[in-house]
Amino acid sequence: MEGWSGNYLRVNLTKQDVKRQKYSEEFAKKWIGGKGFVTKILWDELKPGIDPLGPENKLVIALGPISGVIAPNTGKVQVGAKSPLTGGLGDGNIGSRVAIQLKKAGYDFLIIEGKAVKPLYIYIIDDEVMFFSAEEIWGKGTYDTLNWLYAKYSRNVGILTIGQAGENKVLYSIIRSMEGRAGGRPGIGAVMGSKNLKAIVVKGTKEIAIANPEGLKKIGIEGLRKERELDKEVGWSIQGTTGILSWLNEVAALPVKNMRKTFHENAWKIDGQRVSEARVATYGCPNCSMHCGIAILDKEKKLAEVDYENIGMLGSNLEIFDLPQVASLNYLCDDYGLDTISAGGVLAFYADAIEQRAIQGSFKFGEPEKAKELLKKIAYQEDEGKLLALGTKRMAKQIANKSEAYAMQIKGLEISAYNCKFVPGMALAFSTSSIGAHHKEAWIILYELTKTVRDSYGKDKAEEVIRLQRIRMGLFETIIACRLPWVEVQLNKDYHIQCFNNATGLNYNMHDFEKVSDRIYSLYRAFWVRENPNWDRNWDSPPEIWFDPKNADKKGIIIGKVLEKEKYEQLLDYYYEMRKWDSRGIPKKQSMKELDLEEEMIELEKYTSLK
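RE: above sequence
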């Protein structure tokens, strides 16, 4: 087996016990790596109904067969666990040196289980795994923690860590690595904190086993050069992801005021041009030649890395159009270890609920200093921060007073920074994303607003959502590599398949990855259903307010337009039919058999009937 080491580490924190174990070549070919490994391992090893913040939950950190090799954007690692925010399966990917160092240490994934008696961190160096007290860094933010560990082990090591939000088990806390790198939106940082695990430090010195090392080296170097050339041609990294903000404002799809509005006359103050002009540093993930991490000075003169999602959610969605202030909110989220998307969604929902008189409070839209105070209260679970630490879905249940209609979440995960009040295909993409309302698996909005009819609910949109899910998740989150070279500078996706084949000695094509993707998607959905036996299609629907004519824009280019419920349901039916799921959104027996999920099908039938 080449490309994969065939080895993994099982780390029991309760006993401080480590087992070096092997897995089969069949497992590798069937699940590839990354999200595939995370999904299958957690399905097999977690009993239904466990407490996500209890010691029974497991944290999986997985690589792919091209992780860490010299090729474009291979410095990615997947993290996953049962989500404390959603109650379903949750995962995310992070740009991190862990991808390189863990691969060189000889492991393809880690399974971390149990709970340490006292806070600790793990240091992995090749075949040796050590446990150290985290007393000196427990209670510190991620920036101080990273610097403390760098001083001890050098800046070349790979590090994953949490901040105070993870320690205090905020349900949307994330895991951090390197400068602005973060991942695990559905509360994977809280899982780490619940285990009293402050950080994982990795150093590897071994050679990575590759089937065709010369061939991979050649196309890897060529790919990095090609990526750099394409980026120079299109100029994407000048503004990075922030370049999309002005376009979204123009097409009325920007999140403004808890997504009640779709555009704002002051949005230009925080757009990509302003971000680029304020740039003082540029960061990127390992093995990337089109760096998108733009760092600017925030209000307190600290270096804060910003991207579109955090500007959209902590800026326009809160009606804050002071760029240094938005950067300050982003810096605090990164330091505390809070997901910027969910934090922005929570703060906006809180301000909205106060404005609607559903709850008493003093926070208003457009108040950056008050927002900073609230972020600290959330991270430390103090005062009203205890309520806000729950996420919008649970907040709405407690607040009641019809607030659930404008809690901007799907499956418990806050919607990322695309206002789909009148963008049906992207609303479907959010609703069917495996982890909840996230854009990473099917960013269909550009296709929908430039290549087809905006108000269409046709099969083509369901097809495009699935096509993108198969590529963005099924290929890039399994091998693992960043999808942005393919998305933003049009580096052909077949290039990364060539890297995979040179690494493994296999001869896969996109059709093979489509089957792997469908297998992962169906098992991921099965996990959700096993946790929620009364599952129905309502889980795959966006918030009520997107269907409410009273919420339609009163001015701009989509006056009077909102999603149409009956047409959306038809669009969802198209999606289910193409996925071979039933009308509830549950995989059918025949579909699971075709995807080689017979054993998983038998297990799922214990919890719900299959058609």
